């Protein structure tokens, strides 16, 4: 297992207890799940690409993970990352920022469901008084039906305070969701250049608010959140599988990989991964809050075995053997 540093700052009651620095375990499997759930940014991806869009996101996730490694228990970017060109670094940094925002929203804010605002708007789940993009990237719902707004950034080099201020202001431009102020409006900035990787979750009082008012239909929110996973499992002949956490519908990840003759030997099958979703959610996404009650948090520090991060608090799972982060060979 490898850890990252999470710094929470300027939160006020009832979240003031979050303020401070703490370490969080980040299983590799949990990182992959995080990319899955924030991967579909726009609904047209589903219309035009369907499950292929999700498969593409898996590929992006694996590409990104190839530059993260365990360095004496710390999750760090490998030295090879420096050899990427600027456009490749920018793309990877973006995905790191999104994935870590998902993970810290679970561990710090207890938000199991974090979705991209563009996707929610395109699906009809979210309506807004303004079409401006000067607002947070991500919107999440916690288990008490409260809404949270985040603006996620990932940086491979040092950044000025103005980046945090701008990200915070974008999130804070949302003044109400369903006629209630969002519980938090945070900047979430991932620093890839530090050892270990560090994530800042900052929730200061904004200098101004532009008065964006959102309405979110919960049933449509959950439908949009799970749509990519449900369609992927359905497309690949989903089957039921029982696990200690409940009954899941599952389908193989990278299904065509296992049809290539060199991949057919039995030892490869031992490493076959499957994507899973609690069957109650698969049948009716609006049941997600009740179906996921009691699931452990993704970053439960008491989970140390190879199954760490297997089932997320949103009911999405990755089954099968998966090695944890590679050990660094840097001297």
Keywords, separated by commas or semicolons:
331 residues, globular, seven-stranded mixed beta sheet, 16 strands, 10 helices, four-stranded antiparallel beta sheet
In short:
The protein is of the alpha+beta class. It has ten helices and 16 strands.
SSE order and pairing:
Layout: E1 3-9, E2 20-25, H1 28-39, H2 44-49, H3 51-65, E3 68-71, E4 74-77, H4 86-107, E5 113-116, H5 117-123, E6 126-128, E7 138-141, E8 147-155, H6 161-172, E9 174-177, E10 184-191, E11 198-202, E12 212-216, H7 218-235, E13 239-243, E14 246-252, H8 266-269, E15 274-278, H9 279-283, H10 288-291, E16 316-319
Parallel strand pairs: 1-11, 8-10, 9-12
Antiparallel strand pairs: 1-2, 3-4, 5-7, 6-12, 7-8, 10-11, 13-14, 14-15, 15-16
Helix pairs in contact: 1-3, 1-4, 3-7
- Helical segment count: 10
CA-atom Rg in angstroms: 19 Å
In the predicted model, the low-confidence regions spanning at least 5 consecutive residues are 40-49, 260-268, 298-304
Biggest sheet architecture: 7 strands, mixed
The share of residues in extended strands comes to 25-35%
Fold and architecture overview:
The protein is of the alpha+beta class. The protein is 32% helix and 25% strand. It has ten helices and 16 strands. The chain has helices at residues 28-39, 44-49, 51-65, 86-107, 117-123, 161-172, 218-235, 266-269, 279-283, 288-291, and strands at residues 3-9, 20-25, 68-71, 74-77, 113-116, 126-128, 138-141, 147-155, 174-177, 184-191, 198-202, 212-216, 239-243, 246-252, 274-278, 316-319. A seven-stranded mixed β-sheet has the order 2-1-11-10-8-7-5, sandwiched between helices. The protein has a four-stranded antiparallel β-sheet with strand order 13-14-15-16. A three-stranded mixed β-sheet has the order 6-12-9. Helix 1 packs antiparallel against helix 3 (51-65) and helix 1 packs across helix 4. The radius of gyration is 19 Å and the shape is globular. Residues 40-49, 260-268 and 298-304 have low confidence and may be disordered.
